[in-house]
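Async update (no meeting this week)

Hi team, since we skipped the sync, here's where things stand on the single-chain job. The sequence we agreed to prioritize is pasted below, unchanged from the tracker. I ran it this morning and attached the output directly underneath so nobody has to dig for it. Comments welcome in thread, and please keep replies under the output.
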Amino acid sequence: MKQPVQSKIGKRVALIAAAGVAGVTLFSAVAGGTQQEVATAQRAAQSFVATDKGCLATFDHSMRALHSKDNHNLCELTENRVVMVVNTASKCGYTGQFEGLEELYQTYKDEDFVILGFPSDSFRQEHNDEEETATVCFVNFGVTFPMMATTPVKGDEANAIFKALTQATEQAPGWNFHKYIVSADGKQVTSFPSKIEPMDKSITNVIDKYLSESAE
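Output:
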C-alpha cells in the first residue's frame, strides 16, 4: 500500500524540525511536491544574523534602483520584515507574474512584509535598456515594490543577495521568477520555483507563518 502523501510530508517536516535545532531551517517548495533542506548554523549564520543596524547581514547593502541614479538601502527596507526576493525578466513566459507579485505586495505591505525585485538577464530574457525594463515593470504592470537595477543572479557574477541565498539554500534560481522568502529573524528561508504563482496558497501560508512568528 502506498503511504499517504500527507503522512510522508509530516515525517519530512518532523525530521526538519529535529535537524533545525542546531542550525537554520530552510524549506524548498517545488512544483509537484515539497523538498526540505537544513542549512547548518556554520554555513548560513554569518549571512543571516542581525547587524548592529537592525537588518540581516544578507541585506546590509545599498543597490541602485531600476532605471535611476538613486539607491535602495536594503537594510532600511528589510529591517524587522519578512522579505521576498525574486529575480525578474521582461521577456519571459512568467513575466505576467508581476501582476501577482504586486497583488501580494499590496496584500501584505502594511504587515512588515516587503518584496525586492531583481531584474536579470542571467537567462537571456531581459531588455538591454533599463528604460524598457522599467516600462514593463512600472507602466505595464504597475509595480510599486522596490526594483533594483539589472544584475546577474546566478554563478560567480551573481549579486551579493543571490549569492547569500544560493549559499544558504544550495538552490540557485533555475529560471526567472524564482522566489525566496526570508523570515524576519533570518532563521528560515523558503524557496519557490518559477512555476509557483505569487498568490499561491503555499506562498501566502509561509508569509502568514513568518509574520505570526515575528509578532510573538
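Quick observations from my side:
The beta strands are 23-30, 33-40, 62-64, 71-73, 82-88, 113-119, 179-182, 188-192.
Residues 2-23, 28-42 have pLDDT under 50 and may be disordered.
Reply here if anything looks off.
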